[in-house]
């Protein structure tokens, strides 16, 4: 993490297109995000820095995969990559994306419960993003970590886009990947058994809509991860579902998280 002194620094890209003055607007496990300016297009963008030195090998690979995947994507419901490069001197991967006002998670904490029309719009836009990843690419992609914290809001239009694709992977509609990745409250039962397919993204979609509608994380009563896993594997549904009063919205969430008995 950089100190506040980074605010007085000025960073430029190799082509002198982008100008970043070190105003940090966010951070995550593997990267810090700053406000920057695209001099070619005359607009603000997000400048993301991920230090390679000292980073665990798995996290290093996650950043490399995220940038490589973003280069292949082009859809209004997916955070768009504008440029990327490796800074050999500072041992960093730098990539520039469209600028958003923050995650849906942070947006909800700041602005509170949203009108049903907004919840419906965001649910529809999340579906559009997943349809693109699952159905419209030459090689289908599973996001594998869909949640409100990985969905970003355009402050000016109120539209949203899926981001944080570090766990995303090329997969198949019919074959599951053997891995356990994601965030506990949003993991489908099959993920906990070591298999991840597109249906697990749909499960996470339902849990994300539930969080947006209720302002509560699913399965919030469980403080112990082992207990949460046990309940999910045994078909438990989140108590927060009872807080969704709109029948159509509740039916959508239930359709996403329903797992048929086999």
Automatic annotation (TrEMBL):
The record's InterPro entries line, in alphabetical order, gives:
Kinase-like_dom_sf (IPR011009), Prot_kinase_dom (IPR000719), Ser/Thr_kinase_AS (IPR008271), WNK_Ser-Thr_kinase (IPR050588)
Does this UniProt record's set of keywords contain Transmembrane helix?
no
For this UniProt record, give its keywords in alphabetical order, as a comma-separated list. Answer: Kinase, Transferase
Q: Name one Pfam family in it.
A: Pkinase
**Molecular-function GO term, any one:** protein serine/threonine kinase activity
Q: What is its EC number?
A: 2.7.11.1
Residues in Protein kinase domain copies: 19-262
List this protein's GO terms for biological process: intracellular signal transduction
- GO cellular component term, pick one: cytoplasm
Q: Which domain of life is it from?
A: Eukaryota
Protein known as? non-specific serine/threonine protein kinase
Organism of this sequence: Klebsormidium nitens (Green alga)
- What is this organism's lineage? Eukaryota, Viridiplantae, Streptophyta, Klebsormidiophyceae, Klebsormidiales
């Amino acid at each position: 993490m950089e100190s506040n002194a980074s605010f007085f620094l000025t960073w430029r890209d190799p082509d002198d297109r982008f100008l970043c003055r070190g105003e940090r607007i966010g951070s995550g496990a593997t990267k810090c995000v700053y406000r920057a300016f695209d001099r070619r297009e005359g607009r603000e963008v997000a400048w993301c820095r991920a230090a390679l030195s000292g980073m665990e090998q798995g996290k290093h690979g996650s950043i490399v995969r995220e940038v490589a995947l973003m280069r292949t994507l082009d859809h209004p419901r997916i955070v768009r990559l504008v440029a990327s490069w490796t800074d050999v001197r500072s041992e960093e991967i730098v990539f520039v994306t469209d600028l958003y006002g923050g995650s849906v998670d942070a947006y909800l904490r700041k602005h509170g419960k949203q009108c049903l029309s907004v919840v419906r719009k965001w649910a529809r836009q999340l579906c559009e993003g997943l349809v693109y990843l699952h159905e419209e690419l030459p090689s289908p992609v599973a996001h594998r970590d869909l949640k409100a914290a990985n969905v970003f809001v355009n402050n000016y239009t109120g539209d949203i886009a899926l981001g944080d694709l570090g766990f995303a992977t090329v997969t198949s509609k019919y074959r599951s990947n053997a891995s356990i990745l994601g965030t506990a409250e949003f993991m489908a039962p099959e993920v906990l058994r070591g298999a991840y397919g597109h249906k697990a993204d749909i499960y996470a979609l339902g849990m994300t809509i539930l969080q947006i509608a209720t302002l509560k994380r699913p399965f919030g009563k469980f403080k112990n991860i082992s207990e949460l896993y046990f309940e999910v594997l045994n078909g438990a549904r989140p108590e927060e579902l009872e807080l969704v009063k709109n029948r159509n919205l509740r039916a959508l969430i239930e359709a996403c998280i329903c797992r048929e008995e086999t």
